[in-house]
Amino acid sequence: MPDNATPFSLDGKRVWVAGHRGMVGQAVVRRLEDEPCEILTADRKTVDLRNQAEVKAWLADARPDVVILAAARVGGILANSTYPADFLYDNLMVEANIIHSSFEVGVGKLLFLGSSCIYPKFAEQPITEESLLTGPLESTNEAYAIAKIAGIKLCEAYRQQHGADFISAMPTNLYGPGDNFDLQSSHVLPALLRRTHEAKQRGDPSLVIWGSGSPRREFLHVDDCAAALVYLLQNYSAPTHVNIGFGEDISILDLARLIAGIVGFSGTIEHDLSKPDGTPRKLMSSARLQALGWKPKIGLRDGIASTYEYFVRMTDQPARGGSSLRGFAASG
Ligand SMILES: NC(=O)C1=CN([C@@H]2O[C@H](COP(=O)(O)OP(=O)(O)OC[C@H]3O[C@@H](n4cnc5c(N)ncnc54)[C@H](OP(=O)(O)O)[C@@H]3O)[C@@H](O)[C@H]2O)C=CC1
Ligand SMILES: C[C@H]1O[C@H](OP(=O)(O)OP(=O)(O)OC[C@H]2O[C@@H](n3cnc4c(=O)[nH]c(N)nc43)[C@H](O)[C@@H]2O)[C@@H](O)[C@@H](O)C1=O
């Protein structure tokens, strides 16, 4: 069987999960523990992925058969719009270093993770893979989106020029255990879980959400995302990137109401209109992935409820000597 044929077996393979400490990386590691492969990891102190020499040396030494590129500078709407240079530079460097050096050391299969923000701001809904580069991007995350589009194009180019089996997946907005709960830099779902929990604890009469509440987003549990990523590794080999979505979207106001119900907060919801709304709607078509034979299992209500249990468990820990909840100590 040629190297880039499907199905691709992970049996006995050495798989490097780049970004294994992040929300997606942790979920991918959990999922790969069910496969007969060897999982390789390297933390930021060992390899700064923006540093070409460090990435090259690490890959030349570790010699993975498979690379899952789940490392990136990631953040919500405010972080993206406040630090565009960091989001563009870091992500371009991480992708370019890992994709190029993986090719040089002969990695057999590489999976690059992009994001649904690569699509035009006013793309037709649900958004198909063909919408890429058909219109202007949303300004709040243009820098990040351009870096992610460059990553897709790098994978396509190494496939076209060198026959490398490099593929790309575009997950929708994700949530779950291991998420960043920092109120300034996080995405909406972890931010609202934390803010609603704290409002309930304080007995606040109201809760503030950013923007008008009218934008619609599609949310996928990170364990479903990890399952889809491993499925794509095993069953997909082609130039076109593949959307990974949940199949339904929800307005931010309805998400806030859903979270309030799960947390048990009965106050009112108010709006901070100084904060951006971002793209009005982002519902992807996952028809290509479904045609390959994969669909999600975790419903939004159940997924949020289990993520809230995780959050409460983690926030309990300072009393017992220190929290491992990401972004918890850093914000107010
Ligand atoms: N979260 C979401 O809603 C979505 C995420 N994605 C994509 O999924 C991927 C993972 O995202 P997610 O898990 O949420 O992000 P996280 O921020 O949780 O994790 C990112 C990981 O990348 C590592 N990393 C970043 N920069 C460097 C660097 N210079 N050197 C070494 N390691 C680095 C971080 O290391 P450290 O722990 O040391 O900081 C961290 O482990 C990204 O490609 C993202 O674009 C796509 C769609 C939605
Ligand atoms: C995954 C994806 O994530 C980002 O794009 P986004 O979907 O716009 O991000 P978000 O989750 O931060 O916001 C979604 C919506 O929710 C509203 N909102 C309300 N209240 C809070 C709140 O408290 N925090 C945040 N962050 N948003 C809030 C907010 O105003 C917006 O209307 C990019 O990083 C992008 O690059 C990317 O790939």
From TrEMBL:
Pathway(s) annotated for this protein in UniProt: Nucleotide-sugar biosynthesis; GDP-L-fucose biosynthesis via de novo pathway; GDP-L-fucose from GDP-alpha-D-mannose: step 2/2
MF annotations from Gene Ontology: GDP-L-fucose synthase activity; isomerase activity; NADP+ binding
InterPro entries: Epimerase_deHydtase, GDP_fucose/colitose_synth, NAD(P)-bd_dom_sf
Binding-site list for substrate: 195, 210, 217, 277
Site features described as Important for catalytic activity, chain residue numbers: 115, 117
Positions contributing to NADP(+) binding: 19-25, 113-116, 148, 171-174, 187
Keyword Isomerase: yes
EC number: 1.1.1.271
Uppermost EC category: oxidoreductase
Biological process according to GO: 'de novo' GDP-L-fucose biosynthetic process
Pfam annotation, one family: Epimerase
Keyword field contains Isomerase: yes
Reactions catalysed, as given in the entry: GDP-beta-L-fucose + NADP(+) = GDP-4-dehydro-alpha-D-rhamnose + NADPH + H(+)
SUPFAM superfamilies: NAD(P)-binding Rossmann-fold domains
Keywords: Isomerase, Multifunctional enzyme, NADP, Oxidoreductase
Domain NAD-dependent epimerase/dehydratase per the UniProt entry, residue ranges: 16-245
Catalytic residues identified in the record: 144
Superkingdom to which the source organism belongs: Bacteria
Family (UniProt): Belongs to the NAD(P)-dependent epimerase/dehydratase family. Fucose synthase subfamily.
Its job: Catalyzes the two-step NADP-dependent conversion of GDP-4-dehydro-6-deoxy-D-mannose to GDP-fucose, involving an epimerase and a reductase reaction.
Record-given protein name: GDP-L-fucose synthase
Organism in which the protein naturally occurs: Bauldia litoralis
